[in-house]
């Protein structure tokens, strides 16, 4: 797990107005804390921090450079605007090389299961203890060829770099289920419609002697004085 280098700036103004001005300047308000030191208020370059998250994942390791002093930190929490997805605030946790930390690591499913099998991810993340400099970016779960009923528990997850999974070993991480039949889907739809008070309209019976695909002539207006034969010959 590589650490990324970001040059921070100290913040001396606080509040919503100050935070907005910081973001307009292309920076993100942040705090740095941990190991008994006082909380440090700073800002990070927005574009560079976004690149760190893309390359390092949610648990990115950062070397924060503030006033010429370097500090190793772990991305602990990131607040985003729910609509614009702009980074609004960052919490950074001070760490030491060699120390172990507890983090949530994303689960990624790879491979194709057996035919007519659906994959359901029951846990999007699992709790992991790992060296601060060797946190896995994600944990892959290979479902290649797995059939319905053959789920994957936390005990079956494979991690490297000295990491340990802390999530309950019996917790179901990925569930594999039989794909529903057309009849089952229709039955579920009918049940849902009944619960919602929706009544299905009955199809109108076909005209006697008319087969599927036949064209039925429109009836002539009464009193027109025309017959079918005269209309065709006109």
From TrEMBL:
Keywords: Ribonucleoprotein, Ribosomal protein, RNA-binding, rRNA-binding. GO terms for cellular component: cytosolic large ribosomal subunit. Belongs to the bacterial ribosomal protein bL25 family. CTC subfamily. It holds the Pfam family Ribosomal_TL5_C. GO terms for biological process: translation. The keyword Ribonucleoprotein applies. InterPro entries: Rbsml_bL25/Gln-tRNA_synth_N, Ribosomal_bL25/Gln-tRNA_synth, Ribosomal_bL25_b-dom, Ribosomal_bL25_C, Ribosomal_bL25_long, Ribosomal_L25_dom, Ribosomal_uL5_bac-type. It comes from Geodermatophilus dictyosporus. The gene is rplY. Residues 224-234 have a biased composition (Polar residues). Residues 6-92 form the Large ribosomal subunit protein bL25 L25 domain. Residues 101-178 form the Large ribosomal subunit protein bL25 beta domain. This is one of the proteins that binds to the 5S RNA in the ribosome where it forms part of the central protuberance. This is Large ribosomal subunit protein bL25. The lineage of its organism: Bacteria, Bacillati, Actinomycetota, Actinomycetes, Geodermatophilales. Residues 189-234 are annotated as: Disordered.
């Amino acid at each position: 797990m590589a650490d990324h280098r970001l040059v921070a700036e100290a913040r001396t103004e606080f509040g919503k107005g100050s935070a907005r001005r910081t973001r307009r300047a292309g920076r993100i308000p942040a705090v740095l804390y941990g190991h008994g030191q006082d909380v440090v208020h700073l800002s990070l370059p927005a574009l560079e921090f976004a690149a760190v998250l893309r390359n390092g994942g949610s648990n990115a390791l950062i070397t924060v450079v503030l006033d010429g002093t370097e500090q190793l930190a772990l991305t602990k929490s990131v607040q985003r605007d729910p609509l614009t997805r702009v980074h609004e605030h960052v919490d950074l946790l001070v760490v030491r090389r060699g120390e172990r930390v507890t983090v949530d690591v994303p689960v990624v499913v790879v491979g194709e299961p057996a035919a007519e099998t659906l994959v359901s991810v029951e846990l999007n993340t699992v709790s992991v203890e790992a060296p601060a400099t060797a946190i896995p970016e994600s944990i892959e779960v290979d479902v290649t060829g797995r059939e319905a009923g053959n789920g994957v528990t936390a005990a079956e997850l494979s991690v490297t770099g000295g990491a340990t999974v802390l999530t309950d070993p019996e917790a179901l991480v990925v569930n594999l289920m039989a794909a529903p039949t057309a009849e089952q889907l229709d039955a579920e739809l009918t049940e849902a419609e009944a619960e919602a008070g929706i009544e299905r309209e009955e199809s109108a019976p076909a005209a006697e002697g008319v087969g599927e695909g036949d064209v039925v002539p429109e009836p002539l207006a009464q009193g027109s004085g025309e017959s079918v034969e005269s209309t065709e010959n006109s």
